[in-house]
Design goal:
By secondary structure, the chain is α+β, with helices and mostly antiparallel strands. The chain has 3 domains: 92 residues, OB fold (Dihydrolipoamide Acetyltransferase, E2P), CATH 2.40.50; 263 residues, BirA Bifunctional Protein, domain 2 (2-Layer Sandwich); 121 residues, Gyrase A, domain 2 (2-Layer Sandwich), CATH 3.30.1360.30. The strands form 5 sheets. It has an 8-stranded mixed sheet, sandwiched between helices. Strands 1-2-3-5-4 form a 5-stranded mixed barrel. Helix 4 crosses helix 6, helix 4 packs across helix 15 and helix 13 packs antiparallel against helix 14. It starts with 17 loop residues before the first strand and ends in a 10-residue tail after the last helix. The structure holds aspartic acid.
């Protein structure tokens, strides 16, 4: 037998028991004539004791053990003289009578400790060793708990978990497809699903009523922080539902996850905010509501006083940072540099200090009187001691920069507490988005999202103004999921394809099967998908989804443990009727 107990099990009540344990050697410490070993497994650490005086041969054997050796020991549980209150097994230790080395280990390339000396790439290369560390192991267990909670909740609500294929034809989530060459159909390719979108809609046509799947999705996107080419979605679809019902169902799921996994209870409904409000008040469709600091527009109070930058601007807006009027020149300069970074793109930053004595000091004092500045302060409801920061220019760019500035100030002021969770739904997204480059509309969500009934009349005239029955779920400024009520009418779906610039032939070639399905009594339906990786990362307090993925890819999309992608053998290419073009450059 390898073990009677695992390494986290034994307590003071077990004293005098004869036990057998197996695990990894975490640490060997020699103290006088004694050798202490921390034996580790998934469940914890137990201290083993070897005594030179009572069993010299055994103690010498123990002294030779190295880090990460796999051993089996037999011994007796005794009460420790110096207890370790930080360890659940800290009241006891095991006096060892027998030691078997099951497997020696080379010295690991980094320390298997909570705070490891290994960099991220090294730990990814030896991910199986990294998984022995508590932070990684605990993240995987947390992920398991979230998945289990999801399954429990959805099962209780009559959702059926059904699988969908991975070898399919392109799906319309707007990224590039990963493709798989077909041996049996030379020159033809499968695409890996960017999501199971069309299948879940077909399940609804199939009468399954409520579907879900915890499923891998594949998107070949250019490197963007915190993306993985393969990631996991909690993918869901429901029939005969309105948007409100979908939101209610998945708000329930979110609450259930927080309650069962974190013991956190939310009171009342999650707020629902329109896209328009989110953009105007936060400059983002995924506002971080852990703190206020709303954006306010100032055009009416700030224009017409001779300050050309403002007078010429389409938009002037700002935020008010509480109790920051004491910011030094240097701190302000840092903020100016921050907003001028190319990825943020503001031309500059105007500040107004609302001094404790009630006076104002601004970077535009030449143009604005104390009374003018007071009017600005009123817009924000500012108090003495606050600092107002303004950005102007083209509206969308300015809002985008204000969003970044708001998040930066939130960070500086410690308002983005990782242990606080604030969720909301953002609704009424635009249906379409104009793309200047290709001079055509793109679906903001995907082509199956239905327009709002009341905006339908605008489809032919002002399509850009049409709002969609689409919604996103946001926690702490992170888009955790999103979905929509779908089009289930052939005519409308064809119209949508037309707006998106598909010729009838292209639409037929790509989505003919779906259009065909809609001819046979398609029920109204809608759904959503949630990013499991993001959700777990958030609950885990991780900034990167890599922390909560068992075997993640690095920033360049490579698996550095297996070293993939990798070339394939010539024979394999031949079998697939493929040849690799040699790039002359
Ligand atoms: N398929 C969508 C996505 O992956 C989610 C949905 O519309 O249900 O974002």
């Amino acid at each position: 037998m390898y073990r009677t107990h695992h390494c986290g099990a034994l307590r003071i009540d077990d004293v005098n028991k004869k036990v057998t344990l197996s695990g990894w050697v975490q640490r060997v410490r020699k103290l006088g004539g004694m050798t202490f070993i921390d034996l580790r497994d998934r469940y914890g650490i137990t201290q083993l004791v070897f005594d030179m005086e009572t069993n010299a041969a055994l103690a010498e054997q123990a002294n030779k053990l190295g880090r990460e050796f796999v051993v089996r020991v037999e011994g007796t549980v005794v009460e420790r003289t110096s207890k370790n209150p930080d360890l659940p097994t800290g009241d006891i230790e095991i006096i060892i009578e027998k030691l078997d080395i099951i497997k020696a280990s080379e010295v690991p390339p980094f320390t298997i400790e909570d705070e490891s000396d290994g960099g991220e790439e090294l730990r990814m290369k030896y991910r199986y060793l990294d998984i022995r560390r508590n932070p990684v192991k605990d993240a995987l267990i947390l992920r398991h708990k979230v998945a289990k909670a999801v399954r429990n909740y959805l099962d209780d609500n009559d959702f059926v978990e059904a699988e969908t294929p991975y070898l399919i034809k392109s799906t319309p989530e707007g990224a590039r497809d990963f493709v798989v060459p077909s041996r049996l159909s030379p020159g033809e390719f499968y695409a890996l699903p960017q999501s199971p979108q069309v299948f879940k809609q077909l399940f609804m046509v199939g009468g399954l009523d409520r579907y879900y799947q915890i499923v891998k999705c594949f998107r070949d996107e250019d490197f963007r922080a915190d993306r993985q080419p393969e990631f996991t979605q909690i993918d869901c679809e429901m029939s005969f539902v309105t948007q409100d019902e979908v939101i209610k169902m998945f708000s329930g799921m979110a609450k259930y996850i927080f309650k069962t996994v974190k013991g956190i209870e939310f009171e009342g409904d999650f707020p629902v905010m329109t896209y328009e409000e989110a953009m105007n008040s936060y400059g983002s469709d995924k506002p971080d509501l852990r703190f206020g600091m709303k954006i306010h527009q100032l055009n009416s109070v700030a224009q017409g006083k001779g300050f050309k930058v403002f007078d010429d601007a389409e938009y002037i807006g700002g935020i008010c940072a509480e109790a920051c009027a004491n910011y030094s020149r240097k701190q302000l300069d840092k903020l100016i540099d921050f907003v001028k970074k190319p990825q943020i793109g503001a031309k500059g930053l105007v500040y107004v200090k609302y001094n404790e004595d009630g006076s104002f000091k601004s970077s535009v004092d030449k143009f604005y009187s104390q009374d003018d500045l007071k009017k600005w302060a009123e817009v924000f409801g500012a108090k003495p001691g606050d600092l107002i920061l303004l950005i102007s220019g083209e509206k969308n760019n300015s809002l985008n920069a204000l969003n970044e500035l708001r998040l930066e100030m939130g960070e500086r002021l410690g308002l983005r507490d990782k242990n606080k969770f604030v969720a909301l739904w953002v609704v009424d997204f635009p249906l379409l988005e104009w793309d200047e480059e290709s001079k055509r509309f793109h679906a903001m969500h995907h082509p199956f999202t239905s327009p709002k009934e009341e905006d339908m009349h605008l489809l032919d005239t002002e399509a850009e103004k049409v709002r969609a029955n689409a919604y996103d779920f946001v926690i702490n400024g992170v888009e955790i999921g999103g979905g929509s009520i779908r089009i289930f009418d052939n005519k409308l779906q064809h119209k949508m394809f037309d707006l998106l610039g598909f010729t009838p032939e292209e639409a037929e070639a790509q989505f003919g099967f779906l259009m065909e399905a809609f001819k046979y009594g398609a029920p109204p339906h809608g759904g959503a998908a949630f990013g499991l990786d993001r959700w777990v990362a958030l609950l885990n307090g991780s900034d990167s989804i890599r922390d909560v993925i068992a075997f993640p890819k690095n920033n360049a999309g490579r698996d550095i443990m297996m070293d993939a992608p990798a070339p394939v053998a010539k024979e394999q290419l031949e079998e697939l009727s493929l040849s690799i073009r040699q790039n002359k450059e």
